[in-house]
Amino acid sequence: MLKHEAEADRVFHALADANRRTVIERLTRGPATVSELAAQLGVTVAATVQHLRVLQDSELVRTEKAGRVRTCQIDPAGLRNAEAWLRRQRTTWERRLDRLDAVLDDQTKEQ
Amino acid sequence: MLKHEAEADRVFHALADANRRTVIERLTRGPATVSELAAQLGVTVAATVQHLRVLQDSELVRTEKAGRVRTCQIDPAGLRNAEAWLRRQRTTWERRLDRLDAVLDDQTKEQ
DNA sequence: CTCATGCTTAAGCATGCACTTAACTTTACG
DNA sequence: CGTAAAGTTAAGTGCATGCTTAAGCATGAG
């Protein structure tokens, strides 16, 4: 639970930036180099590298360097973590609503 | 798409804070007052109010004031938005992998 | 009415973050 | 070799963020 919390911290922080989300959206369509991502974002390559570090630490992106060009692609682990946290909250909440419904049903029957 | 992007911005930013996630986890178990949330977080009531403003703006929490006590509960809209964004990315990525598989299958057949 | 309770708001502060520029390393090409 | 391209790293800057304290505003209990 605690390890998961730390992961959730990294992942949601990574997703909280619009430029980093744009990188993810781009990479779901296929791999890209650092320069290509920088061009699409409209920021410097240096800024893009910093974004990529955050995305890698949260397991949202994997990169590999061949020669002098670094190729980036989606790492599904981070997306799965984030989806799992959200689903956990939603199901807990829905289960509670179901219990509430049951209680209300019992009460109406007892009248 | 643009409106959705702005919503994603707010939601993921809200989820990026550990204390705000704790509030959500608490509220999935049932409603709570501002003071109760502050006590659990171990921060001042003032700080908690600020977190609640962020959570309301991202439609993760709804609140209602009765007398001098404000009761907070989950608003499922924000969670749904976040889940939708993540699912959109994941399915786009999986569809691309499927296409890649198809291409590779064709190539092996042609040999 | 008095006063404590629950919340709200404003102001200040330390820290973090996203970006830049600039200097540097490594790799490819002629 | 010389040089341009791709990326890395460091330092600095402005702005946002999360927190505090302090003051203020309703509301409920006695």
Automatic annotation (TrEMBL), chains A, B:
Which intervals hold domain HTH arsR-type? 1-94
SMART domains, sorted: HTH_ARSR (SM00418)
Cite the SUPFAM superfamilies for this sequence. Answer: Winged helix' DNA-binding domain
Q: Which Gene3D superfamilies match?
A: Winged helix-like DNA-binding domain superfamily/Winged helix DNA-binding domain
Superkingdom as given in the UniProt entry: Bacteria
Tell me one Pfam family matched here: HTH_20
Output the InterPro entries linked to this UniProt entry: ArsR-like_HTH, HTH_ArsR_DNA-bd_dom, WH-like_DNA-bd_sf, WH_DNA-bd_sf
Which regions span the lipid bilayer? Answer: none
Could you tell me one molecular function GO term of this UniProt entry? DNA-binding transcription factor activity
Q: What is this protein called?
A: Transcriptional regulator
Q: Which organism is it from?
A: Jiangella anatolica
